[in-house]
Design brief:
This protein has helices spanning 6-25, 31-53, 69-78, 96-122, 132-138, 141-153, 159-184. It is mainly α.
Length: 185
């Protein structure tokens, strides 16, 4: 397989988890649905941030993932939500391929942020109130291109490890969403 096919191979290997998460997140047509989304995403990103904090980053990487937890905390406060409590998580991040798989999910979410940002705007939310994280993510589109360069340039890349990690991240996201769905139902 040529290196440039990695992201498409990852997309194919994670399609089911990605589609399941997108369907579960829905369109948040109301403030209540949006609050559930922010609560879920806050919990999910807090869990991922805890895991990423302990990662030994490859020395040759001049790139770091987009951090949205602080913006999410402010958005949650705007919406009168409790601070996020991270879900217990165990995603393998011990090798470069697994780390790239997890980051594929996190950085890939910036691509959908523009659509979500316009939905939030329809609810009266913006980069100053309630949707800071979406503004940050929508403006980080160049991060995706930088990430893809890392993915393409990775030596000794193991697609199976990357896909297993990416799917574990999607599963963690679903666990966080299921928990918040129970709270906001």
């Amino acid at each position: 397989m040529s290196i440039s096919e990695r992201r498409f191979d990852l997309r194919n290997r994670t399609r089911e988890g990605h589609q399941r998460l997108d369907a579960a997140v829905g369109t948040f047509a109301t403030r209540m649905e949006y609050r559930r989304y922010v609560a879920f995403l806050s919990s999910f990103r807090a869990a991922m941030d805890l895991m990423l904090r302990d990662v030994s980053w490859p020395r040759d990487w001049k790139w770091q993932p987009t951090s949205v937890s602080e913006a999410l905390s402010k958005d949650a406060a705007d919406l009168d939500l409790e601070p996020a409590s991270p879900e217990k998580a165990s995603v393998e991040l011990g090798d470069e391929s697994s780390l790239l798989g997890a980051l594929y999910v996190l950085e890939g979410s910036t691509l959908g942020a523009r659509v979500l940002k316009s939905r939030a705007a329809a609810l009266g939310l913006d980069d100053a109130f309630g949707a800071r994280h979406l503004a940050l993510m929508a403006n980080a589109a160049s991060q995706w291109q930088s990430f893809l360069s890392l993915l393409d340039d990775a030596q000794d890349f193991d697609i199976d490890h990357a896909a297993q990690s990416a799917n574990a991240v999607f599963e963690l996201a679903m666990q966080c969403l299921d928990r918040e769905t129970t709270v906001y139902s």
